[in-house]
Design the sequence.
């Protein structure tokens, strides 16, 4: 039993945090919003050079060959800065799916992803729309119980505006007939894995977003003076923030467990992911609600940075499986006859 | 990271499971807040100690097994699964014991710990006073050093287990000119000393789970001071830290409540579905109990590798106490019109112990530092908000 991250994993997190907080500033995010495609190729290049774009690409294809567990702390950091670039989606969904598909698709695309030469988007039916389909060189699309690999010229895109200006969502229509790359059982396995990894990515980012919103509100409450003292010295304000800290403190371990379960292919992985997604997004939603309250009217403006993080949190809460979906997965398990519940049922026995 | 039990941990689990299966009393004991129940629970502590299961984390010389925190969590899981009796000496074994190991002299440890471990000496706590509740630094009960004895005068209140306990530990003002946190000293007091009057206070269930303790020129040998004179606050904070921490409220208790809640929901599904919020509350109970378990294991592993618990431990108290209240509130909803019935009421079939749990859960957000005080600590020390 070891529920800690390794020195290397923590060191990597810390260097990525330094990079991201230095480079991905609210000003840079606002500049992205002004661009037609909402993306920042220079930033993607930097992420590529740091090895982050290919972090989960196998070493033989030019990546770092890391797992969900290695990446989860980095995904938290991506959330902390509200990174607009699709790094979490690439590392946790697109790359693992190509690894799962294997063969020519993997051999052809994984080296190009790691080299920053190509982007791959994944379209899950659960998500209705496809993130970053507009900059993708390859689209992996689910249609019922089949998966298709499509080039940009094979699809029509219709942009849908999100509350989060950083998110670029597209309805994708397949123009020309294509043959599936996976069907039946294999396709179902791809769907489940993509959904679980995507949900883990949302959960990990939600943790970072929640922390950022707390940091912003705490900082504001120390500066803003009313009645002759900082508003943060009032208990009513303190307790708003303390309530977020409590939920956040207890949302992190489930996310780390989910990452570990996915990395080890545990049978409980899907349930662990749903748990993680529910509690992390709930913590982020509470952080948004209480942080805007602490900011007062300033929090309701476009000009103050808080909304960059609130809006991403709101969007992620129902992405890769909405609340109803994940609650149903948990309920189906705990109400089933063979559920292992109670004390001592949380972890498994080493084989 | 590797979230699986080792073979040794499995062996340990099997050993305690087997022992509990053949030793846990078939019939549940009476409440330890009755004279008879107190004696039964004291006997159970002796039985546990004979099997060397009293406090597995203690060193072997004091009757323990020198186990690490993961083993402690495993022990607790098996203990609650087996429905074993509540720990009548929890003030001693969970709170004072660890403090003694940190601040006690070897003589104090040798004299006190073995008798604590076997239940021969049951401990009450003496923190609060009528005017020192959340504001614990307002303590006024005096202990004046005269020769080799302290002479104690004053009053303590909400002293848990004081009605039948043998000893009391608490904080007293030894420097009459001191203010707030300074000048306080941690002293251990035999409750049968001349000059002590214990007035039982019935709790919500009508039983005297705590008491007022009056001190009139009570003389206590100076050897019963724990830590230095004037260092009481520092010593007490260690105790309060343990109290909030994983010793007193390990996750097993709440996971078992969550499991029973799921069962209650399943066996009353028809009536439970009438209120659409109930199913959601059941899901939440399971998730929160699971989160609490995961967080506790993560902390235990971190501590095992030399990490420290900081102000974030204040989140713990809020989380489990609210979880406990929510779970019992949900059970009350499911039980509907039966929820108000005492277990021995003639038509109370199927109500189990939910009402007792519901009453007890009301105390969680209050004792061991109210949740409001915990929120202040989180805001000021963990988040760095201004005082």
Sequence:
């Amino acid at each position: 039993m070891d529920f800690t991250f390794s020195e290397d994993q923590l060191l990597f997190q810390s260097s990525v945090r330094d990079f991201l907080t230095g480079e991905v500033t609210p000003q840079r995010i606002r500049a992205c919003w002004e661009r037609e495609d909402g993306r920042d190729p220079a930033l993607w290049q930097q992420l590529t050079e740091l090895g982050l774009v290919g972090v989960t690409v196998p070493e033989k294809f030019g990546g770092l060959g890391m797992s969900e567990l290695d990446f989860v702390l980095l995904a938290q950091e991506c959330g902390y800065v509200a990174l607009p670039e699709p790094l979490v989606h690439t590392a946790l969904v697109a790359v693992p799916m190509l690894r799962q598909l294997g063969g020519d698709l993997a051999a052809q695309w994984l080296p190009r992803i790691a080299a920053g030469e190509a982007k791959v988007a994944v379209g899950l039916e659960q998500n209705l729309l496809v993130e970053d389909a507009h900059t993708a060189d390859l689209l992996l699309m689910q249609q019922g119980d089949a998966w298709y690999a499509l080039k940009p010229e094979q699809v029509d895109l219709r942009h849908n505006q999100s509350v989060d200006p950083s998110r670029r969502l597209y309805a994708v229509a397949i123009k020309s007939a294509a043959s599936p790359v996976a069907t039946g059982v294999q396709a179902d396995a791809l769907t489940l894995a993509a959904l679980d990894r995507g949900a883990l990515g949302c959960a990990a980012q939600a943790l970072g977003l929640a922390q950022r919103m707390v940091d912003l509100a705490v900082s504001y409450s120390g500066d803003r003076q009313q009645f002759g003292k900082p508003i943060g010295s009032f208990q009513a304000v303190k307790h708003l923030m303390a309530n977020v800290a409590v939920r956040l403190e207890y949302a992190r371990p489930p996310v780390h467990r989910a990452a570990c379960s996915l990395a080890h292919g545990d049978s409980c992985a899907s349930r662990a992911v749903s748990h993680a997604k529910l509690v992390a997004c709930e913590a982020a939603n509470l952080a948004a609600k209480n942080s805007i309250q602490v900011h007062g009217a300033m929090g309701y403006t476009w000009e103050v940075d808080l909304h960059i993080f609130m809006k991403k949190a709101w969007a992620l809460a129902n992405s890769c499986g909405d609340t109803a979906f994940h609650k149903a997965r948990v309920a189906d398990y705990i109400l089933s006859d063979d559920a292992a519940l109670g004390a001592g049922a949380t972890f498994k026995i080493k084989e | 990271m590797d979230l699986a039990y080792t073979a040794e941990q499995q062996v340990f689990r099997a050993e305690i499971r087997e022992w509990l299966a053949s030793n846990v009393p078939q019939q549940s004991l009476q409440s330890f807040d009755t004279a008879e129940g107190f004696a039964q629970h004291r006997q159970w502590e002796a039985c546990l100690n004979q099997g060397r299961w009293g406090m597995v984390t203690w060193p072997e010389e004091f009757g323990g097994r020198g186990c690490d925190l993961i083993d402690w969590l495993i022990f607790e899981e098996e203990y609650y699964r087996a429905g074993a009796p509540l720990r009548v000496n929890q003030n001693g074994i969970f709170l004072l014991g660890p403090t003694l190991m940190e601040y006690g002299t070897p003589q104090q440890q040798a004299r006190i710990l073995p008798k604590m471990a076997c239940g021969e000496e049951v401990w009450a706590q003496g923190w609060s006073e009528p005017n020192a509740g959340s504001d614990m630094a307002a303590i006024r009960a005096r202990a004046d050093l005269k020769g080799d004895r302290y002479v104690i005068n004053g009053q303590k209140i909400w002293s848990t287990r004081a009605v039948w306990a043998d000893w009391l530990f608490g904080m007293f003002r030894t420097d009459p000119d001191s203010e707030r946190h300074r000048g306080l000293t941690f002293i251990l007091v035999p409750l049968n000393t001349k000059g002590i009057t214990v007035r039982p206070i019935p709790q919500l269930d009508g039983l005297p789970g705590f008491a007022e303790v009056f001190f009139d020129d009570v003389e206590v040998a100076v050897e019963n001071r724990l830590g230095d004179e004037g260092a009481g606050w520092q010593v007490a904070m260690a105790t309060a830290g343990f109290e909030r921490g994983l010793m007193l409220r390990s996750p097993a208790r709440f996971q078992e409540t969550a499991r029973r809640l799921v069962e209650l929901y399943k066996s009353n599904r028809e009536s439970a579905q009438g209120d659409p919020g109930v199913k959601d509350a059941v899901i939440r109970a399971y998730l929160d109990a699971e989160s609490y378990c995961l967080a506790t294991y993560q902390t235990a592993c971190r501590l095992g590798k030399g990490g420290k618990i900081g102000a974030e431990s204040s989140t713990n108290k809020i989380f489990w106490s609210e979880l406990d209240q929510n779970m019992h509130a949900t059970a009350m909803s499911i039980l509907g019109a039966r929820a108000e019935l005492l277990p021995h009421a003639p038509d109370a079939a199927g109500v189990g112990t939910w009402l007792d749990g519901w009453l007890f859960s009301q105390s969680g957000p209050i004792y061991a530092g109210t949740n409001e005080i915990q929120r202040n600590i989180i805001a000021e020390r963990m988040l760095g908000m201004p005082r």
